[in-house]
Amino acid sequence: MRIGRALAAVALVAAVCLGWTGCSAAPAPAPTSSASPPTSSRSPLLPPGATTLRDLGFTNAPEGFALPPGVEVETISNQLNVITAGFSPEDGRTVLAFLTTHLLEMGYRIQAASDDSVVFTGTVWHGAFTMSPTIALLTLRYADQ
Description:
By secondary structure, the protein is an alpha+beta fold. The chain has one domain (about 1-20, about 45-140). The chain has 2 helices and 8 strands. It has helices spanning about 1-20, 90-100; strands at about 50, 65, 75-80, 80-85, 110-115, 115-120, 125-130, 135-140. A 6-stranded antiparallel β-sheet has the order 3-4-8-7-6-5, sandwiched between helices. Strands 1-2 form a two-stranded antiparallel ribbon. β6 and β7 (about 125-130) form a beta hairpin.
């Protein structure tokens, strides 16, 4: 049963990512600069004790996007236009609570939320967080405007 739930969580994240990118759409050209994609024009306000994704080694993450203190990122994908962070289910609950409380302060608007996920948009970055009893994942995607 646990394997089934883990596969369902992975399938959900894959579906969200494919929905953002469009499975048959031609890939969008990557930014030509070697620097990270631009961030929101709004100056993010970091919650007390928070750690930015950049401080955690995500060199391509939007500036000012933070996670709660004490959570451990177990897996990362750090691409120019998409970053993904994986967490334990225990840390996932902490991350979900933190995001639903602090996304607005960081310059993002919640589009949808439930007991185990949140979808949000910013000026140039969009994201989603989802979790199951076995895995928790955060994905942020640079959105061409």
